[in-house]
Amino acid sequence: MKRILAVTLPLLASMALVLLLGASLWSIAGSQTPVNLPELLAGKMNESGVNHPVTAVLLNFRSYDTLLEIAVLVIAGITGISMARTASLEDPELRTSDSLLYALQRWFIPLMLLLAGYLLWAGADRPGGAFQAGAVLAGCGVLMRLGGIPLGFLRPGLLLRVGLGLGFAVFLLVAVLSAMAGEAFLAYPPGMTKPLIITIETVLTFSIAMVLLALFVSAPVNDAGAPGEDDS
Amino acid sequence: MTPSLLYAFAGAGLCGIGMFGFIQLRHLLRKLLAFNLIGSGTFLVLVGLAQHGQGPDAVPQALVLTGIVVSIAATALAIVLIRRYFHLSGHTSLEADDSDSGQGGAE
């Protein structure tokens, strides 16, 4: 009886949630929106410095979100590293060596690096941009890590710190400098928009890849003798 | 009723499934997955609802893109924390006794 109640109550609660959400969705969908955002955006596109609306919103019109996002990422990365069991994130003992992976990544890594560069560049006028490129770059790093390639920059030190903080630091620097030059905080000076956006996207790519890779690497590894953890 | 609205309703459904899983499941990784399901449902609602009236809208799409990146980082951090917790305590759920685990419990 108690067990049935323990299943039924959450079931009823979540069904009520779905019904409530559905009803409010229905009423929102039926009402007229006061602002036509796509039209507003299309009217401002040639001020944004890029040709793709999503990139324009991310890095120009709502760059506050992106700035705070990279801040969240850096904090998550630092927390992850400080939670790691191992003193060094890049220990020769932690490398695996698998000949199949090694052969595979000789083909894959150049291609993935190329793809990351393309995605970064494509963000200006089609889907793509810093986050996609950073994710591909991080995947590349994960593959290298699994294949046993030494990743010296993951050792605690200057390179790791710079890599984690670079994107946020450059973004914040641009924001503060443009504020000091007389514009609003995070408003790029006219004429400099495109180069600034490309610079920020590039450093963001590196930092995002670095954070994701650090989070992957810092999951505690298998030397603790814990049950079910050391059979790899 | 447009296809975009269907996405929004699917998102609401995902929110419900995720909420049920989040309450009901014991294993921390399952809880994390259920929580991610709620997040994905929210993204679907945001994009689908905005797309319903006036075609593709870049503003919610950009917000959802930001949200996806943050949720990836948060998930990875949660996994690091869960593994650390498992190493320290040996438990996979927050309750100390796993003996009375119900359906889909801690096994």
What is this entry, summarized?
The complex is a heterodimer of chains A (232) and B (107). Chain A is mainly α and 232 residues long.
- What's the number of helices of chain A? 8
Our count of helices of chain B gives: 3
Structural class of chain B: mainly alpha
- CATH fold-level label of chain B: Helix Hairpins
Question: Which residue ranges of chain B are poorly predicted, with pLDDT under 50 across at least 5 consecutive positions?
Answer: 99-107
CATH class identity of chain B:
Mainly Alpha
Q: How far apart, in Å, are the first and last alpha carbons of chain A? A: 42 Å
Please report which band the strand proportion of chain B falls in: under 5%, 5-15%, 15-25%, 25-35%, 35-45% or over 45%. Answer: under 5%
Our estimate of the beta-strand percent of chain A is under 5%
Question: Largest inter-chain interface?
Answer: A-B, 55 and 46 residues
Q: Could you report the average pLDDT of chain A, rounded to the nearest whole number? A: 81
In this structure, how is the largest beta sheet of chain B organized? Answer: none
Task: Characterize the structure shown.
The complex is a heterodimer of chains A (232) and B (107). Chain A is mostly helical and 232 residues long. Chain A has 2 domains: 1-32; 41-217, no CATH class. Chain A has 8 helices and no strands. Chain A has helices spanning 2-30, 37-44, 53-61, 63-83, 99-122, 130-147, 158-180, 193-217. In chain A, 31% of the residues are buried. Chain B is mainly α and 107 residues long. In chain B, 76% of the residues lie in helices and 0% in strands. The chains are: A mainly alpha (232), B mainly alpha (107).
